[in-house]
Amino acid sequence: MILDLIKNRRSVFPAQYNDKPIAKADIEKILEAANWAPTHKKTEPWRFRVLQGESQEKLGLFLSLKYLEIDPNPKEFKAKKLIENPKRAGAIIAICMQRDPAQSIPEWEEVAATAMAVQNMWLCCTDMGIGCYWSSPGLVKHMNDFFEMNQGEACLGFFYMGYTDEAIPDGQRTPIADKVVWMD
Question: Which domain of life is it from (predicted)?
Answer without folding.
Answer: Bacteria
